[in-house]
Amino acid sequence: xxxxxxxxxxxxxxxxxxxxxxxxxxxxxxxxxxxxxxxxxxxxxxxxxxxxxxxxxxxxxxxxxxxxxxxxxxxxxxxxxxxxxxxxxxxxxxxxxxxxxxxxxxxxxxxxxxxxxxxxxxxxxxxxxxxxxxxxxxxxxxxxxxxxxxxxxxxxxxxxxxxxxxxxxxxxxxxxxxxxxxxxxxxxxxxxxxxxxxxxxxxxxxxxxxxxxxxxxxxxxxxxxxxxxxxxxxxxxxxxxxxxxxxxxxxxx
Length: 253
Ligand code: TYD
Prior knowledge:
By secondary structure, the protein is of the alpha+beta class. The protein has helices at residues 46-63, 99-105, 134-139, 145-168, 216-219, 225-235, and strands spanning 6-9, 13-17, 23-28, 31-34, 39-42, 70-73, 78-82, 85-86, 89-96, 112-122, 131-132, 171-185, 188-194, 202-206. It has two domains: 6-84 and 225-247, 2-Layer Sandwich (Phosphorylase Kinase, domain 1), CATH 3.30.200.20; 86-206, 2-Layer Sandwich (D-amino Acid Aminotransferase, Chain A, domain 1), CATH 3.30.470.20. The strands form three sheets. Strands 8, 9, 10, 11, 12, 13 and 14 form a seven-stranded antiparallel sheet that branches. The protein has a five-stranded antiparallel sheet with strand order 1-2-3-7-6, covered by helices on one side. The model has no long low-confidence stretch (mean pLDDT 95).
């Protein structure tokens, strides 16, 4: 079999060169990390679930006219994406207070925010992804003012779409993170939603019980992460009834 060229390996995904220029193959690993990779574990089936869930959200966004890097799913763990230059920001949208917002401002977890709050963190693990303002983004040239306007508008549109989808299956979208990429097409450049959208980068609580269905299950040792992600995927109709679809076929002797 021909060897593929690895372009980049991150904590949860690997990027390989794609079959056509301007494309990449994004491979979802089973690795779970938290607290800047101080806590690590392999969660069997997580990569398969996140590949399917990210496909579900990204293709939904494409269908309603919000551009993403997603082209098509290739197999259980891989998807074809447009190659793009990632803007070095974690774009966070919050509907309810949780995580670092509570720590910073002393808010009680779960406090409803009067409007969606968009925050930016500079993507640098060695610095712990520090919170930055639009002034920092402009001063260091990470994005221009028109790009920042577009990023804000994309983030809020993604929030409306995802909040509605999750509401329909009894899940509260507390907050989430997206990344934005620049795609170059001849002399034009456009911004797209990139990376992944999965329970790894969202806070998802059951509306009735408040049960956590996201990576906080792993961060705080609240139970089986793959059970939580399977529940999310089942409620969304992304997988059917059990976990057997999450393991690769094995050779039967
Ligand atoms: P936040 O509360 O700032 O940080 P933490 O998850 O460490 O408590 O995160 C807000 C949301 O954004 C949450 O759903 C996790 C997500 N997020 C990521 O997925 N990756 C990141 O690097 C950051 C900073 C946030």
